[in-house]
Design goal:
Number of helices: 6
Organism: Actinoplanes philippinensis
Protein name: Diadenosine tetraphosphate (Ap4A) hydrolase
InterPro entries: HIT-like_sf
Radius of gyration: 18 Å
Number of domains: 2
Order of helices and strands: HEEEHEEHHEHH
Structural class: alpha+beta
Bound molecules: zinc ion
Number of strands: 6
Largest sheet: 6 strands, antiparallel
């Protein structure tokens, strides 16, 4: 293992993903890919469970970055942030919810909500997003149930919940929902797409 060398600063930074609104992934993604949608806001999850009990992304519908929000959306961002934090913190086994906006990957505003598991004191602080890649993946049924709970919580205040409650697993364990992308993975043990992968892909 070697320490990564600090690269010299570039003179001009490259454009972020979706800097030109016509090629923005967020703008081009349908409501059905989100766990909850409203007139001006949408909430999405990773495509598979990861190491943390819950990782969610809050986006505005409009193609704007944080500093571009008009007063109405800026005020609603505060309300949505508090509401989503409460919803995630209400889940079993969640101690804290870390709220992050990095803004280096995609130009379209997206706020990260990362649930820190209760009792896991090592995970406190700035490295929670890295732990998401390191911890064992949580069971898919529990992940789906958590998504449904958060979506229902948000829908109590308006908007539409898309996440369905976890299906009862009548099948034998060998046939339970293994995502296609994991089944077909020739590496077998490769980790699912997580926050780190998404940020890297966006960049
Ligand atoms: Zn956009």
């Amino acid at each position: 293992m070697r320490v990564k060398k600090l690269a010299p600063p570039v003179d001009v930074e490259p454009p972020r993903s979706g800097e030109d609104g016509s090629e923005c992934v967020a703008c081009g993604t349908p409501d059905s890919s989100y766990i909850w949608v409203s007139e001006r806001w949408r909430v999405r999850a990773m495509d598979r469970p990861t190491g943390l009990p819950m990782v969610l992304i809050l986006e505005c519908r409009s193609h704007l970055d944080l500093g571009d929000l008009p007063n109405l959306l800026a005020a609603e961002l505060g309300v949505m942030t508090v509401r989503l934090e409460r919803a995630i913190r209400s889940l079993d086994g969640v101690a804290r919810v870390h709220v992050n906006r990095w803004g280096d990957g995609s130009a379209h505003l997206h706020m990260w909500f990362l649930a820190r598991p209760y009792g896991r004191l090592q995970l406190r602080g700035t490295f929670l997003s890295l732990w998401d890649d390191i911890l064992p993946v949580i069971p898919e049924a529990q992940w789906r149930e958590n998504l449904a709970l958060v979506a229902a919580w948000l829908a109590d205040f308006g908007g539409t919940a898309n996440a369905e409650p976890a299906h009862i697993e009548w099948e034998s364990p060998a046939t339970i929902n293994v995502p296609d992308s994991m089944e077909a993975d020739p590496d077998g043990g490769r980790r699912p797409a997580t926050l780190g992968d998404v940020e890297a892909a966006e960049a």
